[in-house]
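dumping the sequnces here before i forget
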Amino acid sequence: MKKGCKFGTHRVIEPKGTLPQPAWKIDNNMDIFDNEILINVETLNIDSASFTQIKEQADGDVEKIKEIMLDIVEKRGKHHNPVTGSGGMLIGTIEKIGPDLEGNIDLKVGDKIATLVSLSLTPLRIDNIKEVRKDIDQVDIDGKAILFESGIYAVIPDDIPQNLALSVLDVAGAPAQTAKLVKPGDTVLVIGGTGKSGMLCLYEAKKRAGVTGKVICLGHSEKSLDRVRKVGLADEYVVADATKPVEVMERVSEVTDGEMADITINCVNVPNTEMSSILATKDDGLIYFFSMATSFTKAALGAEGVGMDTTMIIGNGYTKGHAQIALEIMRESKELRELYEELYA
Amino acid sequence: MKKGCKFGTHRVIEPKGTLPQPAWKIDNNMDIFDNEILINVETLNIDSASFTQIKEQADGDVEKIKEIMLDIVEKRGKHHNPVTGSGGMLIGTIEKIGPDLEGNIDLKVGDKIATLVSLSLTPLRIDNIKEVRKDIDQVDIDGKAILFESGIYAVIPDDIPQNLALSVLDVAGAPAQTAKLVKPGDTVLVIGGTGKSGMLCLYEAKKRAGVTGKVICLGHSEKSLDRVRKVGLADEYVVADATKPVEVMERVSEVTDGEMADITINCVNVPNTEMSSILATKDDGLIYFFSMATSFTKAALGAEGVGMDTTMIIGNGYTKGHAQIALEIMRESKELRELYEELYA
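..and the predicted 3d for all of it:
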C-alpha cells in the first residue's frame, strides 16, 4: 500500500492537477491507500437538485433512473451529476481503515457512518442497485466507496433511526449556518421553507430570532405550507412562486410592512430564484444561497442590475458542528421529527 | 408614452414574469417609456470573461467578433453572452429623459455617463460596429441603449479621461468591496492581482490592511507580476497557475509561514479557480469571488469536500459609493494610474 494526498488528488484521472471534486473522472479502484477508509455502502442519498434532474430525464421510470445512475458512476468514478454538478452523500459500514489512520481517528471496522462530504468527490463503485426510493431521493445499493483523510463523516447515533439521520445529515449545513447567522430581532425569510433543508432552517431561525424577530416561510402551495404551519415553524406563511421575483417581493412586503427581510435563506432546488431572493431582502441585508440550483452570475449580476448592496453568501455544506446541530433538532422537536419521518425517512 | 416597471420588467419578452437580467430576450425598441432614459451609445466595455470567450470563439478574428456580438444582440435584445452569462457596461450621452424622471435626477440631455448596471439587462440596439479594441475589451459602436429607473450610472468626471474612467468603473465593485472587507492586520490574497480589477483590489487592500497586514499578489507570469511590483501594490508576489489548487496552496503557505490568508479576493477570469481560493484561505477565513467565471456548485461542494468552514461571498458588482471609491484610486496613485492608462485606456 502507499500514502495518498489527504485531499485525494492521487485518485484524479482527468484533468490532472485538480482535486477530486472538480475533476471529470476519478479512480474508483477499491484497493485503499494507507490514509484512506473503505466503506461498504448501503444507501446513497442523492442531492435533491441532482435527483430531480435524473427523475425528469428518466420520465420517472425506475429502470431508467438506475441506468442513468450507473452511467454517471461508470463515466466519472463517482456519482457526480454532470448536469447539476452536485452529488449527495452515503451511508455504510467501515470495512477497512488504512494503517496511517487506524488508531488516530474515532472509527473502527464495523461502525456505521454517514459521509458528510459530497458524492461528487467520493470514489464509488456500484455493483447492483437494489431499490430506488423516488420520493426521498434515497437509493439502496451493493457497492463500495472511499473516504479520503480530509473527508468528514458522522457516526450514526443510536437514538435516531438511520434513514432519518441520513436525511437530516444530508442538509446539515443549512440549519447550522442559519444558527450562526440569525440574531435576536431579525426578520428571516426562508424560500423553500417547506422542504427538507428549509424546515430545519426555519426551526433554527425561529429559535435564534426569538420573540422580537419574525420568521417567514415561503412555499409554493398551501398544502405544503399547512404541514409546516401545523408544526408552528414560522411566524408568517406565504404562498408564492419563487421563480417570480415581483410576486415574491410583493408577498414579502405585505408581511413585513414593506421592510423586507434582514436575512433570506434560499433552500429551493429550482433554477431562477436568485432575483426573488434579492428583491425580498433589505438593501443592506444578507442572502444565504443553500440551493445547488443557484447561478453565480445570475445572483451577482441580478443584485447589480437593481442597484442592491446585498451581501450574498455561497452555501457551504460544511460548518463546524453541523452534524450535531442538525441532529439535535430531531431530539428537541418531537413535532418536526414526526413530520420529517413521515416525509423523508 | 407610458409608465414602465422601475426594474424594467415591461420589456421582458421571454420568459414572462422574470426580470430583464435572467430573461432570455428583452425588447430593444428605442421608443422610451415615461420612466426610462435613452442613451446614444459610444463605447461598449464587454465583461472580461465574456470578451475572452468571444475572442476564443472567433479565433481572434475581428470580423468574426463583430458577427458574434451582433448575433447576441439580435437574438436577445441585449449584449448578454449566452455562454458566460455576463455582460459589461457602456458609455454614451443622454439623448432623452422620460418625463417621470426629468428634474428628479442629476442628469440632463447631453451629459456623458457610464452605465453601472450590466449590459446583460440593458436594452441595446447596435446599428454599426466601428472599432474593436481587442486588448482592452472595448468596442465602439453606433447604437442606442435604455436605462431603467432602478439603473445606476456615473457621470464621467472631468479630471479622468473617458476610456480610463470606463475601465475603472467597469470593475468598480471589486475595490469598493475590498475596502469594506479588509481590516488592519489582515493577510489578504488577491488571485489575479495583476489584472484589471485585481490591481485596484490590491491598492485598497494595502491601504486598509496597513503596516501590520500582508497583501499577496498572485499572478500567472513573472512578466505581469513585474508590472505590479514596480508600482508597489503588494507585500508579496507569487507566480502560480490559479487553476492548480495544490500549487497555489503551497506558494501561499510559503509566504505566510503556513498561516494562509484571512481574506482571499478572486479576480481571475478563468474557470476552475474555486478550489485554489479555498485551499489558500484560513479555515475560518473569507473568500470574495469577483470573477464571473466562478461556479456556484464548485465553490460550495469544494469547501465541503475538504471540510473547510470558509465564508464565501458572491461578488456584488454594486456597493454604495463604488464609483467614487474606484475613481479616487486614479487620483491617489499616479503610478497605478499610469499603468492603468498604459494597459486599459
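The radius of gyration of chain A is 20 Å.
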